[in-house]
Amino acid sequence: MTDAATDENVLLVEVADRVATVTLHRPASRNALNRALSKALYQAFQNLEQDPEVDVVVVTGSDPAFCAGLDLKELGSSSGLTEERFGGQRVERPPAESGPLPPMTKPVIGAINGPAITGGFEVALRCDFLVASERAIFADTHARVGIMPDWGLTVLLPQAIGVRRAREMSLTGNFLDAATALEWGLVNHVVAHDELVPFARKLASDIVSNDQDAARRLLLTYGDAAFTADAEAWELEGEVARDWRANITAEKIEERRRLVTDRGRQQV
To answer: Under the phi-then-psi rule, with left for phi > 0, alpha for psi from -120 to 50, and beta for the rest, what region is 9?
Structure first.
């Protein structure tokens, strides 16, 4: 077993029995994605993709949240609007490869231990499948903050739950509880909170027990089939997000952040 902490302990990585467990670790900020955590998360997954001792990755958050999304306090500053989230410089990637995680040939299981909101929801959607704690909740609050998604939400969410339910989530900004997420097909399992990571790791060990070349080829085939027809949708989301960012101010985001925070306290 190996353990690692990166970038001022904002991310924890543990490897045991060919399974890596990655834990977003800014609990006081509900694991919100600031530049340090975003950069550490992307780099950790790149390293795990190359690690010959790892076959499967489980990603979770330090309680009480999975991930509250982008750090809106940082985003609501002028520097938060202009600097690349993955550290320092703008990184240009194909639309389907943009977002919080790099392309992975190894399976990624999301263990959703609490709120997964907007950017955090998009981290969850980039996983190959999800297991949820009974405490998990999901929400897309892009419209409430006044920003546009550019990590593939408008492609991945309809794939998971259908177009009409995806529209409802995005246009209302309402929270989806774990039981409803299971009913809608967003998550594969809902388990007791304390059993979440062990359950996810057990599924990971089942994957490890297979022929890894075959497992990764299957995963790639699923990805090719899912995204072939959606290439233009990825491009469209990216174009809309870029145009929107050009016309939004830090002051507007900060105003919306306060409203979203107040509403979240009322709903949860």
So the answer is: left
228-248 pLDDT per residue, tens: 556 666 677 677 678 777 777
How far is the C-alpha of 91 from the C-alpha of 221, rounded, in Å?
A: 27
pLDDT at 74 exceeding the cut of 60:
yes
3-class SS of residue 259:
helix
Strands (E) across the chain are located at 2-6, 11-16, 19-24, 56-61, 108-112, 115-117, 129-133, 137-139, 176-177, 189-191
Output DSSP code: residue 79: H
Q: Give the whole-angstrom CA distance, residue 138 versus residue 220.
A: 27
Instruction: Count the alpha carbons within 13 Å of 257 in the hemisphere toward its beta carbon.
Output: 17
Q: Between the ranges 6-20, 88-102, 192-206, 221-235, where is the mean pLDDT highest?
A: 192-206
Give the Cα separation of 204 and 7 in Å (integer). Answer: 26
CB 96 within 8 A of CB 152: yes
> Do residues 60 and 130 lie in contact, with contact meaning Cβ atoms separated by under 8 Å?
no
Closest CA to 207 of 131, 122, 123: 131
What pTM was estimated for this model as a whole?
0.83
| CATH 1.10.10.10 given to domain 2-194+208-267 | no
Q: Residue 78 pLDDT more than 50?
A: no
Burial class of 81 by CB neighbour count within 10 A (0 to 12, 13 to 18, 19+): middle
Closest CA to 61 of 85, 36, 30, 34: 30
